[in-house]
């Protein structure tokens, strides 16, 4: 891919070009470039300069690493591989939503294009693509997509960066991508729940229709949900049958943790509880990390969570997995039986990570990105990521991925209905 850089963007594309709702916040962020030491203060005026006697290294499209909102803050961060970190403050989100002023997302894409000075391929490939996640940075999707983007740099004729719009269990990002132009410049990444599960949990309250508003581009990996016990459960409880007996003897301790109400782990736990007839109480946490902390500390006896969250502690013996949700035993924990194997056939599902585009995105763009992702997923670097997180890579065409989405959407419907779940929002 041809590449060129500019020592400074044109003045019309500088920070001064932004309107009041998306402007340089006046906050000098620490940065590092090959010519400036860590801790130098960078600023943006008519060009790209450091608050030192030397100019910052020229930056091109390939150096753009990530854009995203800081959770709970009106600041949008723009991070470059070898250069400064800039921030863009939203002074009036309400005006921005009405379109009365330039929004930060458009600014980032415009800035990236200015830095690039690249020409898009004749068939309409966007020069820059932002893949938005609806979950905080550092989650499972981020751990997979970040190294994947690195592998795509030499396999895809365009610059791909990651963005984050966390909140509402991924629904905020999904709504944002749904409204984006179908030109391949805006994608959604994340777990399967916002696509295949939420139509059943939120029903008419859901502000997007997954099967109508999105085009499945490429799956990344699948993962099982583990039923895991911690130190609050005696060591002699080694099997699912042992656990059921222990709960019946100690009903006062019969509660289980899930990373979020209405999540896939929640429904796996609720289904097991219903089929086993235990009457356990569900404790919903705000994410897998606090749930894991309480499981390790003995505050909650058992948790239903994605396998990647507990895998390191299963290997050390601090936690014990009694069963997994996959139809067969999961490769990362071959000694752990599946629920189906133990007679709980109602629990036989996995979650998956994937990338999606807005509806009506050209099929050629979808096909080319899917082919590049398939190739990248098979690299040794990505195989190492999968092994570390207990994932199984999914190498599928857009058509096969779309079929998977439809099948899982239908599979979850009776499971959700059987629990009688009603969302709080």
What can you see in these coordinates?
This protein has 425 residues and is α+β, with helices and mostly antiparallel strands. The chain is globular and about 65 Å long. The protein folds into 2 domains: 11-221 and 353-411, Bordetella uptake gene, domain 1 (D-Maltodextrin-Binding Protein, domain 2, 3-Layer(aba) Sandwich), CATH 3.40.190.150; 225-349, Periplasmic binding protein-like II (D-Maltodextrin-Binding Protein, domain 2). The chain has helices spanning 93-98, 104-116, 140-152, 171-178, 193-201, 210-213, 240-249, 264-276, 288-297, 307-316, 363-377, 380-389, 398-419; strands spanning 23-24, 30-33, 36-44, 48-50, 64-69, 75-80, 85-89, 128-133, 159-164, 186-191, 214-223, 225-229, 255-258, 281-284, 302-306, 320-324, 351-358, 392-393. The longest helix has 22 residues, at 398-419. It starts with 22 loop residues before the first strand and ends in a 6-residue tail after the last helix. A hairpin with a 3-residue loop joins strand 3 (36-44) and strand 4.
CATH class of the largest domain: Alpha Beta
Under CATH, the homologous superfamily of the largest domain reads Bordetella uptake gene, domain 1
Using only C-alpha atoms, the radius of gyration works out to 23 Å
**What's the oligomerization state?**
single chain
Low-confidence stretches: 1-123
Note the main attributes of this structure:
425 residues, alpha+beta, D-Maltodextrin-Binding Protein, domain 2, 5-stranded mixed β-sheet, 13 helices
């Amino acid at each position: 891919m041809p590449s060129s850089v500019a020592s400074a963007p044109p003045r019309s594309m500088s920070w001064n070009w932004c309107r009041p709702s998306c402007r340089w916040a006046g906050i000098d962020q620490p940065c590092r470039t090959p010519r400036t030491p860590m801790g130098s203060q960078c600023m943006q005026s008519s060009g790209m300069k450091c608050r030192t006697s030397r100019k910052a290294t020229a930056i091109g499209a390939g150096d753009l690493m990530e854009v995203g909102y800081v959770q709970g803050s009106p600041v949008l961060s723009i991070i470059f591989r070898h250069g400064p970190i800039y921030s863009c403050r939203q002074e009036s989100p309400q005006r921005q939503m009405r379109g009365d002023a330039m929004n930060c997302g458009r600014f980032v894409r415009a800035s990236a294009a200015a830095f690039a000075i690249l020409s898009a391929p004749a068939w309409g490939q966007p020069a820059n693509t932002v893949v938005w996640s609806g979950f905080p940075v550092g989650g499972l999707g981020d751990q997979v997509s970040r190294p994947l983007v690195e592998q795509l740099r030499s396999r895809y004729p365009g610059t791909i960066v990651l963005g984050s719009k966390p909140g509402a269990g991924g629904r905020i990002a999904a709504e944002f991508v749904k409204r984006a132009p179908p030109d391949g410049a805006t994608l959604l990444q994340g777990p399967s729940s916002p696509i295949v599960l939420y139509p059943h949990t939120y029903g008419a309250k859901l502000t997007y229709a997954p099967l109508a508003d999105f085009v499945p581009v490429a799956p990344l990996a699948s993962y099982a949900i583990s039923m895991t016990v911690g130190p609050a459960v005696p060591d002699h409880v080694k099997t699912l049958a042992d656990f059921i007996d222990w709960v019946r003897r100690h009903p006062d301790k019969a509660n289980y943790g899930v990373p979020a109400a209405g999540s896939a782990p929640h429904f796996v736990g609720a289904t097991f509880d219903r089929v086993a007839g235990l009457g356990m109480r569900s404790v919903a946490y705000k994410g897998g990390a606090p749930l894991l902390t309480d499981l390790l500390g003995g505050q909650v006896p058992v948790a239903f969570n994605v396998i990647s969250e507990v895998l390191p502690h299963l290997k050390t013996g601090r936690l014990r997995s009694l069963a997994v949700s996959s139809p067969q035993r999961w490769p990362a924990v071959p000694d752990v039986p599946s629920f189906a194997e133990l007679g709980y056939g109602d629990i036989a599902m996995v979650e998956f990570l994937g990338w999606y585009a807005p509806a009506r995105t050209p099929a050629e763009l979808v096909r080319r990105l899917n082919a590049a992702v398939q190739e990248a997923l098979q690299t040794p670097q990505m195989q190492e990521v999968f092994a570390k997180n207990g994932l199984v890579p999914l190498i599928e065409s857009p058509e096969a991925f779309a079929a998977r989405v439809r099948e899982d959407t239908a599979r979850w419907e009776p499971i959700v209905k059987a629990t009688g779940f009603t969302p709080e929002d």
